Structure formats: C-alpha cells, structure tokens
Amino acid sequence: MQLTPFCLMLSCLRVSPDRSQFSRYDSISLSCEDQLNSTAWKVKRNTSRSGVTTCTFGWGSNTAGSTCEITNIYPSDSGVYWCESDSGERSNAVNITITERPVILMIPALAVPEGAAVTLGCKHEANSSIQRFDFYKDGCSVGSSATGQFTRHSVSKSDEGLYTCGVSGGEESVGSWLAVEGEVTAALSA
Q1: Model pTM score
Q2: How does residue 5 score in pLDDT terms, banded at 50, 70 and 90?
Q3: What three-state secondary structure class fits 40?
C-alpha cells in the first residue's frame, strides 16, 4: 500500500505503517511533518478512556523531534490522533482503531488524492491459509481476492466510504473510512 497521502496543511500527521486499523500488541509510529521543519509540534490524541492527552502522558514515547512511538497497543488506544503546536495550531486528524478481531483491513490512514490508485489489504491474524477475501464499501460487495489485496484504480469521490473486509468462514474486520480528496487547483493571479 505504497501511496503518498494527501496533506496540504502547515503540519501533517503521518502514521507508520500507513493504515488506520491495527491489532492488539502492534506498534505505531506517529510523526508530525512540518513544512517549516519545526519540532514544536506534539502528537495528541482523544480516546474514550482518557480524553485528550499528549504523547508520553501515560502512552507513547517521543523518539526524535515530533515523533511518537506506541508499542503494545490496546483497544483502549483507539481514538483520534493529531499534531498540535505550542500556539494551538492543529494538523489533520486521523482516526485509529485497535481491534481484537482476527481480521484486519489495511486501508490508508490519510486521505488519498483523487485519480490515484489505492490498494486495500485484508489479513487474518491467526490463519494464513485463508483463500478468499471479500471487500465491502458501505455494506455492499466491491470485490474478492485470493491474495488479500484489492486495488481501486484512479479513485474518485464516489470511492469514499466505509470499507470492511471478510474472509471465508464469515469473520469480518471492523469498518474504516477511506477518504478521497479532490484535485488541487492552483489559482493564478494576473
């Protein structure tokens, strides 16, 4: 799922690996990429368990500049994550879900630009011999795969929606939103 996420803000939160669903005990790296190369940005989150907190306040560790590493994540780490400057400016927000379900949908964390190709992945944590993966958008089937990958070529706003994936046997992932950003047009001044 190699794709350049779409972010045209002063600071942009990047998630590595680039997806919005994770399994319990996975690790996530969150970094604030600033157009001005400032390190004054901090990763924050809002979870149902602890409200709004900053990285290292009981979760995560700052590893370099404005990067926050979270190891051994739990479902209680699910929530909205963003970067915030000392003066209160905010980056894009990313919804991250940590699930204990065995089926994980691998979908980009950030919006993808209109016209780009995007590959969704589906994996079963406990069973590598699954031979059929089904992908759904807003509850309707959009395709199947024997490899666990499904590619949408040249995405448009109509591809935006809530995606899930399922495996033979009936197990299904939780849903995650695929956001598609419209093309950016530059205004020319006369």
Answers
A1: 0.84
A2: very low
A3: coil
